[in-house]
Design brief:
It is built from 5 helices and 8 strands; from the N terminus they run E-E-E-H-H-E-H-E-H-E-E-E-H. By secondary structure, it is of the alpha+beta class. Helix 3 packs across helix 5 (about 180-195). This is Methylmalonic aciduria and homocystinuria type D protein.
Length: about 200
């Protein structure tokens, strides 16, 4: 499916996962017929210190402004399983996240803001130089949203309150103010709806 075939829709949802650092509660949108949910968080200082190992080139004063944006896509397959259909869907969800994330990052960068997205497969930034540590999407999202985690041997699986383990988590980071980030996401949604 090409990006011009994407239909989009944005709608906030009610969540019991509010925290003092949550700047935008979980909000759902459609992108290329995929259900996305994002929220915006200003991480606590300890979380910021961990991010310094992931983004080594960010200045200390910029790290204090960093926002963490967990992005969850709803899946048809249970992502706990290792089946051909689940693996194929993981690949599709990865491509959709990267396509959507690049639109957001490119728009923010065009107005002088720093932003990056993580490659959920590797845990390293797509735009910036990798740091000493990968970013764990599941653990990061769990820390911010307080969603449950299922331990499946060597892996942790995030459990969404409505979608269970039929999800694909990923993360966007930016130093843009939350209101500008929301406007950029809405602008992208409007432009995709018009095509």
């Amino acid at each position: 499916m090409t990006s011009t075939q994407c239909s989009t829709h944005v709608a906030p949802i009610t969540s019991k996962t509010q925290s003092q650092q949550c700047l935008q509660r979980p909000t759902r949108l459609k992108y290329c017929s995929s259900d996305f949910e994002y929220s915006i968080h200003s991480p606590q200082p300890r979380f910021q210190r961990e991010l310094a190992h992931i983004f080594p080139n960010i200045r200390r004063q910029d790290m204090k402004r960093i926002l963490v944006v967990p992005v969850i896509q709803r899946c048809d397959n249970d992502m706990v399983g290792i089946t051909q259909s689940a693996n194929t869907e993981r690949d599709v969800k990865l491509e959709l996240f990267v396509e959507w994330g690049k639109l957001v990052v490119d728009r923010l960068r065009s107005v002088g803001m720093w932003a990056d997205i993580m490659d959920p497969a590797s845990g390293y930034p797509i735009y910036g130089a990798p740091g000493a540590s990968p970013y764990p999407d599941v653990q990061g999202t769990q820390a911010l949203l307080k969603y449950d985690i299922q331990n499946t041997g060597c892996c942790h699986v995030l459990l969404h309150p409505a979608w269970g383990s039929k999800i694909y988590p990923s993360t966007l980071f930016t130093t843009a103010p939350a209101d500008i980030l929301i406007k950029v996401i809405e602008e992208i949604q409007r432009s995709r709806s018009a095509t």
